[in-house]
From TrEMBL:
It comes from Polyangium fumosum. Belongs to the PstS family. SUPFAM superfamilies: Periplasmic binding protein-like II. It comes from the Bacteria. Residues 23-264 form the PBP domain. GO terms for biological process: phosphate ion transport. This is Phosphate-binding protein. The lineage of its organism: Bacteria, Pseudomonadati, Myxococcota, Polyangia, Polyangiales. Involved in the system for phosphate transport across the cytoplasmic membrane. GO terms for molecular function: phosphate ion binding. InterPro entries: PBP_domain, Phos-bd, Phosphate_ABC_transporter. Keywords: Phosphate transport, Signal, Transport.
Amino acid sequence: MNGWHLLPAALLVLACSGRYGGAPGAGARITVRGSDTLVVLMQRWAEASTTSQPDVVVEVSGGGTGTGIAALMNGTTDLAMASRPIAREERARIEGSGAKLVEIPVALDAVAIYIHESNPLSALTLDALRGVFAGKIRRWSELGGADRPIVLYSRESSSGTYAFFKEHVLQKCDFAPEAQSLPGTAAVVQAVARDPAAIGYGGIARARGVKVLPLRLADGSVVAPDHEAATTGRYPLTRPLFVYLRAPANPEAEGFARFLVGPEAQALAEEAGFFAWRSPP
């Protein structure tokens, strides 16, 4: 997957770039916007970072990957959280202004398939999953389940998870018109948890109160989005999660970015249900 090897180079860009502003001081603030997949973990990271940057306030807000990258492009955030790689045209717009875009992978995630806890289905192939969300498979009975309609829950189009799912599951085809777009993974989980006929998708760390459906691979084996399958790449819907910032970066933003790839932050990622980008020692 493109960009997974870029961490040392990204930090080197920060180390070699010029900086604006002075040294961190009392009352300094940095803003982080973007991916709803990352927002809860980022809030934990922000709180934990006060040990290394006690005079810096980190303000975190979600809204989706597209929102965060748009804010980075127009200069209204210091760092953007993303659950997909930045698009070529987005990168061009930032670098066209004379800045250097820095991409830092901060955690590993597995996009999980959520169904109601009462649903007896044990696994789905990617082809069947594609058929479900494209609207070609409309009833659970077509998959060996109860004879009732499948209710689809998706994310809004500004979501990086939406973009990832559309590319890797739907192969860039459209979602079924009846798929209900919800503003955040938590909303998808809540909707699926209430509805025995529902199916949705989102980051593995948010899978609470729902059943996570394993995927059946082409060789007939079944793989769940667990640590081993995600870190080895065996689970096909594994993805990196990123933070983006401009270089030159202000000292506070640079310091926070460095904290995110350190052992304390990576241990917190594991505790939150993600997978560490670099395993804690």
